[in-house]
Every structure is written in C-alpha cells, then in structure tokens.
Design goal:
With 96 residues, the protein is an alpha+beta fold. Helix content is 41%, strand content 25%. The model has no long low-confidence stretch (mean pLDDT 91).
C-alpha cells in the first residue's frame, strides 16, 4: 500500500455570475525531496498531479470510492483549478 499525504486545496468557481471558493480535501502519493526537482521540471501541472496520484475524497466514483483522477481529467481542468490544486500539494509537501 502506498503511503499518502493529506491536505486541502481551495478551488474558486464562478456560478451564475457569482464567484465562490470551496475547500476540498486532497491526498497524493508521498514523495521525497529527490522527486521534487523532477516534478517541478515537468512543465505540465496536469502531468505533475497525475504523477503523484492526486485524489480527493470529496470526488466520489459511482462505486462510492474516491474517484481515480486520470491525466485526461486534469487536462480538462482550467489553469486556475490546476494551479490551486498544485498549491494545495505544495503546502502539504513543505509543511510536512
């Protein structure tokens, strides 16, 4: 079983002309500082998030389990949401 780090990310959404922020829980496969340099060298945030197996227990699959996000899912997110998810990972990683 892979050890996972847990934290939160804040996503900003515009619905019906109103902007709101929502905090979601995130988890990802733990990685060490040796992998950090490899990750930040990857220009695609979507690829980074996929590489570390980012999940959210707030995003549930039809079977009731956390949805296994795929790179294609991340590629459909807008840049703001990808950045906010990556910020959540960075905050967890550096706060340990």
């Amino acid at each position: 079983m892979t050890l996972r780090s847990e934290g939160k990310a804040t996503l900003t959404m515009v619905e019906n002309g109103e902007t709101r922020s929502e905090e979601i829980r995130i988890s990802f496969a733990r990685f060490g500082s040796h992998m950090w340099n490899e990750l930040i060298a990857v220009p695609s945030i979507a690829k980074r998030l996929h590489t570390i197996d980012l999940q959210s227990p707030d995003i549930i699959d039809d079977n009731g389990q956390p949805y296994q996000l795929k790179e294609s899912d991340f590629n459909r997110f807008d840049v703001l949401h990808l950045s906010q998810l990556w910020d959540g990972v960075v905050n967890v990683f550096w706060k340990g």
